[in-house]
Amino acid sequence: MSSDDEDDAMEASARLPDGEPASAEAHGAELGDEEALLRSLGGIVSRVDRMERRVDELDRFFASKKSLGGSGRKPASKGKGRKVGIKFRDAEVDSEFMDVGVNDGAPSKRMQEIMRRFGEIFRQILKHQWAGPFMDPVDVEGLQLHDYYKIIKKPMDFNTIKNRMEEKNGSGYKNVREIYADVRLVFTNAMTYNGEKNEYHVMAKALLGRLEDKWLDLLPMVLEEERRQEEAQTQAKINRQIAQEAVMMKMAKDTNDEKSQKDNSPKGLCHALSLEDIFKAIEEIVAKKDS
């Protein structure tokens, strides 16, 4: 091909569809605008996708709230508590809503006092002259009690209880009912395995009677503390639900504000487009560029 032919070909390739000549600078600007628009549309698609996910989350939240019959809000007091349920960033939840302390890992101060009092009852039983046979685990092999584990499903002894009461690593008793249940189990095991006329049955029954008498004296305090804990846990759940609703309402407002923002710029106009419109526009640009 001659140099003149090459020049003609280059000139033809640089013409616009209507036949008018286009400079290399204008051609480059056109490509730059297409790439910029593609990037802009890509960003808008991501924003719309995020907004749709947020709307879906809001729909699910309020649908579940409606199915539960409302929030049942109550006034909140001041304080601190742990978060439960759905996880949110700390900055999203006002501390006012997290006001009731709920700690599943350690007993409250009042429960600790009740456990201390029961500990005194337990020590009195340990000092009784009949406590000896119940101090350690039953020597099943030494006494050749081949059927013991078939009859007794949960063995228990005083030293096991005492050691657990003294645990400091979180594996100890969480409330007084757990201790009471284990102490009672020591006696009921002995009474279950041994006949009524057996000396171990008689001793266990007598000590169980002492335990029950002392437990009845302590029970009003136990019931009062359990009532307080139940109220605190209920209040914590209510406060957490209020906090969730506040976050969701803020998210709904932000989403609505973002969707309603419009201006005369291409970016503003694209906010009103559906995902289908955006993808269609992208396909047209790509098709035009490939042609």
> What fraction of residues sit in β-strands?
under 5%
> Which outline best applies?
elongated
Oligomer: single chain
Average pLDDT figure: 73
Q: What is the straight-line distance between the termini? A: 25 Å
Helix content: 55-70%
Count of distinct strands:
0
Question: What is the helix/strand order?
Answer: HHHHHHHHH
Structural class: mainly alpha
Number of helices: 9
Unreliable runs, pLDDT <50, ≥5 residues? 6-22, 71-103
SSE map:
Elements: H1 3-13, H2 24-67, H3 109-126, H4 148-151, H5 158-165, H6 176-193, H7 199-260, H8 266-270, H9 275-290
Keywords: Bromodomain
Region (Disordered): 1-32
Protein name: Bromo domain-containing protein
Question: Would you summarize the structure shown here?
Answer:
InterPro entries: Bromodomain, Bromodomain-like_sf. The chain has 291 residues and is mainly α.
Characterise this structure.
- The two termini are 25 Å apart.
- The chain has helices at residues 3-13, 24-67, 109-126, 148-151, 158-165, 176-193, 199-260, 266-270, 275-290.
- The longest helix is centred in the C-terminal third of the chain and has 62 residues, at 199-260.
- It has 291 residues and is mainly α.
- Helix 2 (24-67) packs across helix 7 (199-260) and helix 6 (176-193) runs antiparallel to helix 7 (199-260).
- It is 64% helix and 0% strand.
